[in-house]
Design brief:
The chain has 10 helices and 3 strands, in the order αααααααααββαβ. It has a 3-stranded mixed sheet. A hairpin with a 2-residue loop joins strand 1 and strand 2. The longest helix is centred in the first third of the chain and has 33 residues.
Length: 312
């Protein structure tokens, strides 16, 4: 997967969340609505997360060194995992704390009336509707860029199987942001209509629970990438076809693949060749097999093939 589409989606999300965070904070200052504060912190966390993804992408592009001979491609996985932690702590847990704090104020019958008495009490509705529009553009960009590489896979399969973490992260974050905005809109709107601020608390609670669920999902998927995933089944099939694409290779005895980065695959295979005393024949067999694999799967940058005589 090319990083160009991922970067475009991340930048679009970063710009949208930065603008949205500023407007939400202004609306919260004017009204004191807890849902708006939770959503403002959510947008700050999202903007910070997009910054982390860009840093990870930049650091992953460094050239290999003697200490890191396979390069730094996995830095993108590390920063994506940090994103899940930030989303869980700064976004989800803060929203749940704010909901609890606001509920305690209501239970003690003091504080929390500014939303109902403020002359700006309808500002949150306007801000949230505008935020939904801006967030929708960011979400649309992520969908368009994802569709370029998603193929026939369902969205669930795409998120679970994608080797480049940026697009799945942005997709889930944007989806969570849109749902969070709807929760905030319902909570604040019903509070204004009924005069019962408990709805604002419930909206904040829903936002917190949503972010916790999304963060855990991202952590699980990114953890799998950090542990090391094999190439996709389609890529493995092409690699096998490439190795077996010559009569000099009798069979593949065993083969292992590993993503050392989103666009870098390590291939290690033991192949069965015909008995021969010629080192040149063996060398030509291995070299031609490597050429066919790289032609079929360009991401297979690190290939190690060991010849052997097959003994059933």
């Amino acid at each position: 997967m090319s990083t160009e589409g991922s970067t475009k989606a991340v930048i679009a999300a970063l710009l949208a969340n930065t603008g949205i965070a500023v407007t939400k904070f202004l609306a919260w200052i004017l009204t004191g609505a807890s849902s708006l504060l939770a959503e403002a912190i959510h947008s700050v966390a999202d903007a910070g997360n997009q910054g982390l993804l860009l840093i990870g992408s930049k650091r992953a592009s460094r050239e290999p060194t003697e200490q890191h001979p396979f390069g730094f491609g996995r830095e993108r996985y590390i920063y994506a995992f940090i994103v899940s932690i930030v989303l869980f702590s700064v976004g989800g847990l803060f929203a749940l704390y704010e909901a609890y704090h606001k509920y305690q104020e209501l239970a003690d019958d003091h504080g929390g009336e500014s939303l109902l008495t403020s002359q700006w009490k309808w500002v949150p509705i306007v801000v949230l509707l505008a935020a939904i529009v801006m967030e929708s553009f960011s979400f649309r960009t992520a969908i368009v860029e994802s569709n370029k590489t998603r193929g026939d896979a369902s969205w669930k399969e795409f998120i679970r199987r994608a080797k480049a973490p940026e697009l799945p992260v942005v997709l889930l974050e944007d989806l969570a942001a849109l749902l969070g905005l709807v929760f905030a809109l319902v909570g604040v709107g019903v509070s204004l209509i009924t005069g019962d601020l408990l709805w604002d608390v419930l909206g904040t609670t829903a936002i917190g629970l949503l972010l916790v669920v999304v963060a855990i999902t991202l952590a699980i998927e990114t953890k799998s990438l950090l542990l090391g995933e094999s190439a996709a089944p389609e890529a493995r099939a092409l690699i096998e076809q490439g190795i077996l694409g010559d009569d000099t290779v009798e069979r593949i005895i065993h083969m292992r693949t590993l993503h050392v980065g989103p666009e870098e695959i390590l291939v290690a295979a033991k192949i069965a060749v015909a008995p021969t005393e010629s080192a040149q024949v063996l060398s030509d067999t291995i070299n031609s097999a490597e050429e066919r694999v790289r032609a079929a799967v360009p991401a297979a940058m690190h290939i190690y093939i060991e010849p052997d005589i097959y003994r059933p």
